[in-house]
Design a protein that fits this description.
Pfam family, one: OB_ChsH2_C
Number of strands: 16
Protein name: OB-fold domain-containing protein
Number of helices: 3
Order of helices and strands: HEEEEEEEEHEEEEEEEEH
Structural class: mainly beta
Distance between the termini: 91 Å
Shape: elongated
Strand order of the largest sheet: 6-5-4-7-8
Helix content: under 10%
Largest sheet: 5 strands, antiparallel
InterPro entries: ChsH2_C, NA-bd_OB-fold, Thioester_dehydratase-like
Length: about 325
């Protein structure tokens, strides 16, 4: 009895056309391919007014011949549906994950199938969250075109977001109060102003009391020790911080009536706590200038934590 099983070593049957297969495309498809060669996309209008892309010789809904009116469409279009390819085959247009998509060019009533390049992904990756029906795309034409659908290398998402590298350099010129405060920092001293109304010591100096709105002029030198009142753990790199994550905290200097924002280091970020006692870590004296950079950060000291009740009004 003959077997219907194909032997594993049976040769593949390949139909090949050495030199290519030449065929006539006709005036409708020929116009479409000629426009692609010139970097444009056109559709053809049916007797009912619809615009077909890619063009066809007859209306697929009615079977009637299309008109001889060609309409330029796109170049942008909308994804109507898609299929993700996590592991491309060697015959595919990309060697990394991509999507096949039906794309309806602007001005068209039908969609064409083409490859959608969404960026570089590892083999087997899941489709990105931004890949969705309705996303806007544009064609990427090849530099050298020959009049085939392959003249469109692929479609790319329209640009909706950018991440420019930006930097803003500026020089801060302090007023009389801030200038005096920075003079003190350049000498290794932390100076504040005492308010004549509430008797609170304001540091850094501002020249007025933010609570009472009155001018301040009485200088008070404060120690470089204080208490953490509240803090935040940061996971975005900062050139001033020793590592990531790092802690930025409001520190109430001993004798001050307002907190000061600074960095806290010398302890793992997850061990910083409210009420922790800290001390300024000064840079070497030869590096000092009129800048708060003279203090690298505040570090914990071996003193008991301050009870919450004593710092609750400074949160």
């Amino acid at each position: 009895m003959p077997s219907n099983t194909v032997p594993s070593d049976a040769p593949n049957h390949v139909v090949a056309f050495p030199g290519g297969y030449t065929r006539s495309v006709g005036p409708v498809i020929g116009r479409f391919l000629s426009e692609l060669r010139d970097g444009r996309m056109v559709g053809v209008r049916t007797a009912g007014g619809r615009v077909l892309v890619p063009p066809q010789e007859c209306d697929p809904e009615t079977g009637e011949d299309v008109t001889d009116e060609f309409v330029e469409v796109g170049p942008a279009g909308t994804v109507t549906t898609w299929s993700w390819v996590p592991r491309p085959a060697k015959e595919h247009p990309f060697d990394r994950p991509f999507a096949w998509a039906l794309i309806r060019p602007d001005g068209a009533d039908t969609a064409l199938l083409h490859a959608l390049d969404l960026g570089v992904f590892e083999p087997g990756a899941k489709p990105p969250k931004f890949l969705k029906t309705g996303m806007r795309v544009r064609p990427k034409y090849r530099a050298e075109r020959t009049g085939t659908i392959g003249d469109i290398e692929c479609f790319l998402p329209e640009v909706t977001m950018i991440n420019p590298q930006a930097a803003l350099e500026y020089r801060l010129k302090g007023g009389q109060a801030l200038g005096r405060f920075l003079e003190g920092i350049a000498e290794g001293r932390i100076l504040g102003h005492r308010c004549p109304v509430c008797d609170k010591v304001i540091v850094p100096m501002k020249g007025f009391c933010t609570r009472d709105g009155v001018p301040t002029s009485e200088e008070v030198e404060l120690p470089d020790t204080g208490t953490v009142t509240t803090f935040a753990v940061n996971n975005i790199p900062d050139p001033r911080a020793p590592e990531v994550p790092f802690v930025s905290a409001y520190v109430l200097l001993d004798g001050a009536g307002l907190t000061m924002l600074t960095l806290v280091a010398g302890i793992p970020a997850d061990q910083v706590r409210m009420g922790m006692r800290v001390k300024a870590a000064w840079r070497p004296r030869e590096e000092w200038d009129r800048s708060m950079a003279n203090i690298k950060w505040f570090e914990p000291i071996d003193e008991p934590d301050v009870p919450f009740e004593e710092i609750k009004d400074f949160m």
